[in-house]
Amino acid sequence: MRPKAVLLDIEGTTTSIAFVKDRLFPFAAEALDGFLAAHGAEPAVAAILAEVPGAEKAATLRGWMDADAKVTPLKALQGLIWAQGYADGRLKGHLWPDVAACLRAWAAAGVTLAIYSSGSVAAQRDLFGHSEAGDLVPLFAGFFDTRVGAKREAASYTAIAAALGLPPGDILFLSDVAEELDAAAAAGLAACQLVRAADGTVASGRHPGATDFPAVAHAFGLPAA
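Above: the chain's sequence. Below: its structure in token form.
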């Protein structure tokens, strides 16, 4: 059955893992100290820092960065740092070449599109708003991050379905991570694993797999670009 909505992961799904690991993360790490010195007293940044434990906020943040921790304060702060890079042109959001055309075709056909990523909602909007394929933000009906819950917990997907106003069974979730797909399936969503060779993703065998978005379209009755 063709889904009424497609919920998308970013890293490894719409966007290369290398872009996130080798471009975005180092960009934020390099800019952290200067950003905190310049903006640490601003209300939005101060509110984020209030959620960071310990007296040495920068040290805690760097520890989280080194561990690739999926913690909301770090993701929110990284999003603010990346926003500066997108705004001044130092960053452009990477998308796999097959992604934008399919997203546009699906949206034009009335399919609801939404993003669910561990990166902050602000960072998601910046990536798609300043993407290599132009501003794709208007295509999306919703953006969700870890404030809705962890990506490996079924309750997060139940909450997203409710926010989109759709039964879980009407939503297809796309991700490269099998454990995220397990959680989505447990909540009643259809699930498909993106297995992109360039990212080194290994098919789990627990869910349908697709090498790119046109293959997803073919498998689930969505319009091709």
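Residues 5-16+92-220 form a domain with the Rossmann fold fold (CATH 3.40.50.1000).
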